[in-house]
Amino acid sequence: MIRPRAAPPQRLLNTPPPRLAHRTAKAAPMKASTILCVAVTALALAACQQQPATTPASAPVASASAPVIPAPATAPASASSAPLPGDHAATKHYKIAITLPTLPADAKPLADAMRTTADAAKRDFLQALPDPNALPEFANRQLDLLLDFKVAAQTPAFISVRETGMQDTGGAHPNPVQAAFVFDRKAGKLVTLDDLFTDPDAARKALANFAHDTLLKKFMADAPKLGQGSPEAIREWKANMLQMLDGGTKPTTVNYSIFVVQAGATPNAPSPGLALIFPPYQVAPYVFGTQTVEVPAGVFAKFLKPDYARAFAP
Q1: Which residues lie closer than 8 Å to 189 by C-beta, 6 or more apart?
Q2: Regions of the chain with pLDDT less than 70
Q3: Contact 40, 237 (CB under 8 A)
Q4: In the predicted model, what is the mean pLDDT of the chain?
């Protein structure tokens, strides 16, 4: 597994980011009868053809003339552990491909956080690889760790980075990786969602209500119709979907640990809102992929701290 749930990735950079920076998919139980019914089988097949939703990278990246921090070609060796392979390495048993973006020079704490996260991912991946001597079926199988860090948005106040990818250590399917880093440019540190608000609990409730209603409308539009399964199977499908959605959108810190600040219409414009990111299994079955909900600033503006009030345009 990749860094099981610990703390969200948007941690202050006074200390290295904790290993919960990555959110990997973890299955939520659903009744077996639902999976076996014709309606759910049809829906799963259809959903498998859909690409998971992503947040559009509409913001400008650092210009060619701006000072940048190049992505390190190799990971620094740790004094307390064996040297790590580089960000692009391959052997008979594994392949590692990690891509890091260039950033403005004043965003070095953000670059350091991504470096620490990438190195932790490599360590976890190498430790999770099956031993080909004990499991000969893996003797000639190459397993993968693929991570892509991209600048999702830049505003005068924030730089937001999305991390996506997967880790394959021989399971039924690869484990998807989802993480985000939001950097406060003025303060020079990473921030969590709660850091933006004077009343984090109230703000999360407002965001949760918006996310729940948005996703409920989307999922119910894709619900199996009469003729695609028995009435009982359709009712059970809806009940199980609601159970996952209700649990995955509860206004907890963990449920809202992955987000980005959206880019404005121009490089100097304030942000129009937040994009909340829900990894596979959090609000819907795996076949639905990652879900992203764009929340306009008007939903949460009244909860913003004074320092961030002008960073958003309700």
Answers
A1: 12, 13, 14, 109, 183
A2: 1-81
A3: yes
A4: 81
Torsional sign, CA 215, 217, 221, 226: positive
204 close to 259: Cβ distance less than 8 angstroms: no
Phi and psi torsions of 308, nearest 5° = -110, 0
pTM over 0.90: no
**CATH value of 19-32+53-311 in 3.30.565.40, 3.40.190.10, 1.10.4160.10, 3.90.700.10:** 3.30.565.40
Structure tokens at 71: 């992505």
**Separation in Å, CA 65 to CA 75, 102, 106:** 26, 12, 14
Reported as a single tens digit per residue, the pLDDT across 33-47 is: 333 333 333 334 333
- What is the Cα–Cα distance from 80 to 92, expressed in whole angstroms? 26
**In the chain, what are the domain boundaries?**
19-32+53-311
